[in-house]
Structure formats: C-alpha cells, structure tokens
Write a structure and sequence with these properties.
With 322 residues, this protein is an alpha/beta fold. 36% of the residues lie in helices and 19% in strands. The chain has a seven-stranded parallel beta sheet with strand order 3-2-1-4-5-6-7, with helices on both faces. It has a six-stranded parallel beta sheet with strand order 10-9-8-11-12-13, sandwiched between helices. The chain is globular.
C-alpha cells in the first residue's frame, strides 16, 4: 500500500531550533501511523553551519539532535525564489506551511488535496507593522484557511471553525529519566537555568537578565546556567555559565540540574516551561495575555513585566527552597 505523503515547507534548522522540535514530533507520529514525510527547506543557503546546507547534512543533524526518521525525504532549496520557481514540482496529499514565508509559498502549491498552516506563534508580532505583518494577519482572517495551532490562544486568533489546536507536549520518557537520575543542586547555591536566545526578540532575554541583575541585590547566592546562545562575552554581577546552543538531551540535563528555569515567550507559549515542569524544576515564564490563557493549572509561574516585582517573586521562591 502506497504511503500518503505530507509535505512540510519550512525554514532551515540546526541544533537548538526550538520551533522545529514540535514539527519533528508531529512528523515522527505521522511516520509511525504510516505516512511519508517530505521536508522542503526553503532557505538552505542561509544556514549558519555550512555542513547543514545539504540534504545529507540536515538528515545527519535530524538524527543527531531530534529523532531518527523512518519514512522521510528532504529537499533543499537555496532560497525562497528558487523554491517558488520549482513549486509546481511538489506533489503529495497534504502540504503544510510552518512559518509566514512557508505559508505564503504554500498558497502557490496546487498539486495537493489539502493545505494546512502550522501555527506556533503570532508571527504578525515578530516585526513592526509592515507588509509581512499584514500578510500574517490576512492569513489568520481568511476563513478558507485551516490551521493547526499550538494552543487555544492562537486558535482564537484565527476565528475559524476549520482550525484545530494542540497542547505543546514534552518527551515525557526522557524527562522522567533525567529527573530521576540527575539530582538538583545544593540549596546553599541556587542554580537558575535561563533560556538566552537573544537572536529572537520575542524571547525577551534582556528582560530576564534585568530581573536576575535586580535579584542579585538581595544578596542571594545563585548561579545562572545560560543556554540558547553563547553569552560568554557579556559581564554580569553574578556567576554565569554559558552553555551555548544545546541539543534537547543536553538541555534536559542543564534544566534537571537546576532549581529554577526561566524561559520567556512573548508571542505564544513554548515547549520549554512545560519541559522544565516535567523535569521537576520550578518553571517561570512572562505574564502575558497568551500565557495566562494557556498556563491555567498553576504548574508554571508567571512573572510580571515589572523588574523589581518579578525579582521579588523569584526571591520568595528561593526562600521556600532554603
């Protein structure tokens, strides 16, 4: 029996690509269910790692940092223009656009039975008001479009009965193993894991570090384990260990060895806070309308945007640990 083919159009990826983690988990389950996945990379030449600008390089990275595919093919196009020139060559049962540029490209895909948009963020907020944000809003408001949304808040933006939502999940087996075999730190020296991907403004990394700098004024002994980007050149009035970009396995280890995990997301909630919860680490995110709609069970603590108030809230958490 011939497998049904799902074509995913997406930006290129490397170790630490958070948004791709959810895409790959979806694809993995589709493969288990008997589907064939085709990953179409729309901007291969933009990958910061030259080794990952080829099909084989991306396949190797996929196996190393994400999952082992069982029924998958990858096609790499250097840029959006080259993909658009060849878009009529793409065929399958379903095509899925995974970011605003991919979603615009899928509008030109005609050799498919169905089209969906995979929505993990409110991308109209990524940039100031612009042509791109107008297109992002247009896609959301078009009642003919169908969306797979990460959470109810994003689904509410589509105003579309055809859309479905899902909860961002964690690899619970890996998380349970790390939480059992990797002890948390000594309470005499609090460890805080901080997601520091400063290349993504929506992660509000500057705000995290402002809060932690204010926390230091309470004369609490703590050290910060930063991951997501290399910040070794940045100086702080407290101890910082920069882990750089991590694979999911490495990230689990850092978070599981920490008492507190801070990961902000301003355009929709992300995987990281729930992954920290699954690792039995206290999890903190930014207080926003989208996060309030998602974190309703009290498992993730929301920090207000006011620096001194947020720092006091973290101090209170540390006091309970001591």
């Amino acid at each position: 029996i011939e497998s049904h083919t799902v074509v995913w159009i997406m930006p290129t990826f490397n170790k630490g690509s958070g948004g791709h983690t959810t895409i790959f988990r979806f694809a993995k389950f589709l493969e288990i269910a008997g589907f064939k996945n085709l990953f179409v990379i729309r901007n291969g030449s933009e990958n910061s790692d030259p080794k990952l600008r080829s099909r084989q390089g991306l396949l190797d990275e996929l196996r190393e940092s994400f999952y082992t595919p069982i029924n998958l093919e990858i096609k790499v196009f250097d840029n959006n223009h080259k993909l658009l020139d060849s878009v009529n060559q793409l065929k399958g049962d379903v095509v899925i656009g995974t970011d605003i540029f991919s979603q615009l490209i899928t509008l030109n895909c005609s050799n498919f039975n169905d089209r969906w948009f995979f929505l993990q963020d409110h991308e109209a907020l990524f940039k100031p008001a612009s042509t791109l944000s107008i297109f992002a809003d247009m896609l959301l408001q078009d009642k003919e479009n169908k969306f797979i949304c990460a959470g109810e808040w994003l689904k509410s933006l589509t105003d579309n009965q055809k859309s479905i939502s899902f909860k961002l999940g964690v690899d619970s087996l890996k998380a349970s193993l790390y939480s059992q075999f990797t002890p948390h730190s000594s309470k005499n020296n609090i460890k805080i894991a901080a997601y520091s991907r400063f290349t993504s403004p929506r992660r509000a990394v500057d705000h995290i570090w402002s809060i932690l700098t204010h926390l230091e004024k309470y004369k609490i002994k703590f050290e910060v384990h930063a991951f997501g980007n290399d910040i070794r050149q940045t100086k702080f009035p407290f101890k910082v260990i920069s882990h750089g970009v991590l694979s999911s396995r490495e990230m689990y280890r850092v978070i599981s060895q920490s008492d507190i995990s801070i990961a902000f997301s301003a355009t929709n909630y992300s995987l990281l806070p729930y992954e920290a919860v699954s690792l039995e680490t206290i999890s903190l995110d930014i207080d926003s309308s989208s996060n309030r709609k998602v974190y309703t069970d009290g498992s993730v603590m929301l920090l207000p945007p006011i620096v001194d108030v947020a720092a006091k809230k973290i101090k209170d958490v540390i006091d309970t640990l001591n």
